[in-house]
C-alpha cells in the first residue's frame, strides 16, 4: 500500500507522511502483552511461486547488504521474491533471469550457487540483526533503552517506512548489551555477567551480534521446516533444467506455508535456547566455552564475587598450597635420583628437585627429615648464621612456584 492509497487523491503533507511512517515502525505499548510480544513472522513463497527447489544439503546462509535507497517497485519486488525462496538456499538464483535482477543482486547471482539473503545496508544495521532484536521481550527493551518496534519479518521483504530514520545512533550497541544480558544465563550458569571483566572472552562473545546471526537464522529455518506445505500440485522429484539436464543434489516440491515463527515471550524464550544450541553447530560454541573455562586467568574476573571466581580461586590456591605448606616429603635423607621417578606422595616430584643446586637440595632434604630450625640447618651446613638459609629458602619457594605454575 502506498502513501497515495492511504490518503486518497489528496497529496499527503510531510507531517502526515511522518505520522504514517512512525505508525508502521512503533507498536503501541498496550499491544505489547507477553502472550503476543515479541513475535516474528514469515511469508510463504507459495504466494508467488508454484513450487520450490530444495537442496539435499543446503549451504550455510549468509547475509549480503544492499544500498538502502530502493526507489523502483521492481527492486523491492526482486529482493522480496529472492528472499522468499529461502528453502531453495544456494539454488534460488535459478528462478531468475540475471537481466531482470537489479545490478547489485545480479552480480551476486552471477557468482554461482550461493545461499544469500539480501538486506538493506543501514546505519543501525537493524535488518541484519532483526531476528535477535525480535527475541527480546518488552521488559528487556525497556531495560536497555530500546524502542518498542512492531513484530519482525524474516526474511527481509521491504522497508516501506524507512525504519533506520527512527533508530538511535547507538541502537547496535544497546542491542548488543540487551542480547548479551538475555543469552548470558545460557553461557555461564550461576554467575552474573558483572562478575567478569569487560574483556572476558565469553562476555565479548555474548555481545558479538555477528556471531549469533547464523545461529538464530538456523533456528528460524529449522522451525519453518516443520510448517506444512502449500498444495500446489507439485510432486516431489528431480529438478529438470531448461536444457533437459537434471540439477544434481536437489529435489522439487511444494513451498511451505508461512506464519508466526515465534509468538509471545514463552515461545521466544524457547527460541533463545534453540539459538544457543544452534550456535554450537554454526560457531562451535561449546568448544569455545570449554576452552575459555580451561584457561581462565585472574584478569578475567571483576571485583564482584561469583561462583566462577570462587571455583577458580579454590583451584588456584589449592595448587599453590602444594608449594607453600612444605617443600617435600621423602623417606630418609636421600633424594630420589632420577627425574623420571617422581614422588607420588602429597607434595612434590623429583623433577622439581633436579632444578635445585646442591645446597638448596640439601635444605629441602633436611626440612623433610624434621630439621625445621633455620639456625640448626645453618649449623649443619656450615653457615655462620641463619641469614643465608633464609635467602636460600626464598630461592626455593620462587623455584617451586614457577615449577608448579607450569605443571
Major β-sheet annotation: 3 strands, mixed
**What is the element string, with H for helices and E for strands?**
HHEEEHHEHHEHHHEEHHHHHHH
Average pLDDT score: 80
Main sheet: which strands, in order across?
5-1-7
Structural class: mainly alpha
Radius of gyration: 33 Å
End-to-end distance = 70 Å
Low-confidence stretches: 316-351
Give the strand content: 5-15%
Q: Helicity, in percent?
A: 40-55%
Number of E strands:
7
What would you call the shape?
Answer: elongated
- Individual helix count: 16
Describe the model.
The protein is mainly alpha-helical and 407 residues long. The model is unreliable at 316-351 (pLDDT under 50). The strands form 3 sheets. A 3-stranded mixed β-sheet has the order 5-1-7. It has a two-stranded antiparallel sheet with strand order 2-6. It starts with a helix and ends with a helix. The chain is built from 16 helices and 7 strands. 44% of the residues lie in helices and 8% in strands. It has helices spanning 3-7, 14-25, 73-84, 103-109, 126-133, 138-143, 171-187, 201-207, 209-224, 265-283, 285-294, 307-324, 350-353, 358-368, 374-381, 387-406, and strands at 39-42, 52-55, 62-67, 116-121, 152-153, 250-253, 259-263.
Write a brief structural summary.
With about 400 residues, this protein is mostly helical.
Summarize the topology.
Layout: H1 3-7, H2 14-25, E1 39-42, E2 52-55, E3 62-67, H3 73-84, H4 103-109, E4 116-121, H5 126-133, H6 138-143, E5 152-153, H7 171-187, H8 201-207, H9 209-224, E6 250-253, E7 259-263, H10 265-283, H11 285-294, H12 307-324, H13 350-353, H14 358-368, H15 374-381, H16 387-406
Parallel strand pairs: 1-5, 3-4
Antiparallel strand pairs: 1-7, 2-6
Amino acid at each position: 500500500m502506498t502513501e497515495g492509497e492511504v490518503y486518497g487523491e489528496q497529496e499527503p503533507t510531510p507531517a502526515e507522511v511522518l505520522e504514517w511512517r512512525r505508525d508502521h515502525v512503533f507498536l503501541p505499548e498496550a499491544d505489547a502483552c507477553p502472550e503476543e510480544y515479541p513475535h516474528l513472522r514469515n511469508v510463504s513463497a507459495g504466494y508467488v511461486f508454484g513450487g520450490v527447489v530444495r537442496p539435499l544439503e543446503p549451504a550455510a546462509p549468509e547475509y549480503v547488504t544492499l544500498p538502502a535507497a530502493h526507489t523502483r517497485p521492481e527492486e523491492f519486488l526482486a529482493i522480496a521474491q529472492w528472499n522468499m525462496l529461502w528453502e531453495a538456499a544456494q539454488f534460488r538464483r535459478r528462478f531468475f533471469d540475471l537481466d531482470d535482477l537489479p545490478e547489485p543482486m545480479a552480480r551476486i547471482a552471477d557468482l554461482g550457487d550461493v545461499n544469500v539473503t539480501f538486506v538493506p545496508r543501514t546505519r543501525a544495521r537493524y535488518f541484519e540483526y532483526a531476528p535477535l532484536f525480535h527475541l527480546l521481550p518488552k521488559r528487556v527493551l525497556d531495560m536497555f533503552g530500546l524502542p518498542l518496534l512492531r513484530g519482525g519479518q524474516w526474511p527481509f521483504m521491504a522497508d516501506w517506512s524507512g525504519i533506520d530514520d527512527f533508530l538511535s545512533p547507538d541502537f547496535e550497541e544497546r542491542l548488543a548489551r540487551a542480547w548479551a544480558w538475555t543469552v548470558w544465563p545460557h553461557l555461564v550458569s550461576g554467575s552474573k555477567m558483572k562478575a567478569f571483566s569487560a574483556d572476558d572472552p565469553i562476555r565479548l562473545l555474548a555481545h558479538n551480534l555477528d556471531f549469533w546471526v547464523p545461529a538464530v537464522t538456523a533456528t528460524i529455518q529449522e522451525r519453518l521446516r516443520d510448517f506444512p506445505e502449500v498444495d500446489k500440485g507439485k510432486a516431489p522429484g528431480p529438478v529438470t533444467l531448461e536444457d533437459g539436464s537434471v540439477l544434481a543434489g536437489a529435489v522439487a516440491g511444494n513451498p511451505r506455508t508461512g506464519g508466526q515463527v515465534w509468538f509471545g515471550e514463552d515461545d521466544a524464550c524457547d527460541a533463545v535456547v534453540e539459538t544457543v544450541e544452534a550456535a554450537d553447530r554454526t560457531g562451535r560454541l561449546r568448544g569455545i566455552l570449554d576452552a575459555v573455562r580451561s584457561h581462565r586467568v585472574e584478569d578475567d574476573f571483576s571485583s564482584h564475587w561469583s561462583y566462577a571466581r570462587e571455583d577458580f580461586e579454590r583451584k588456584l590456591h589449592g595448587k599453590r598450597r602444594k608449594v607453600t605448606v612444605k617443600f617435600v616429603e621423602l623417606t630418609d635423607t636421600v633424594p630420589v635420583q632420577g627425574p623420571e621417578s617422581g614422588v607420588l606422595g602429597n607434595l612434590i616430584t623429583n623433577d622439581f628437585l633436579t632444578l635445585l643446586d646442591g645446597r638448596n637440595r640439601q635444605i629441602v632434604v633436611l626440612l623433610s627429615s624434621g630439621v625445621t630450625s633455620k639456625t640448626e640447618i645453618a649449623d649443619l651446613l656450615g653457615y655462620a648464621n641463619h641469614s643465608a638459609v633464609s635467602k636460600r629458602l626464598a630461592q626455593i619457594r620462587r623455584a617451586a612456584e614457577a615449577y608448579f605454575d607450569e605443571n
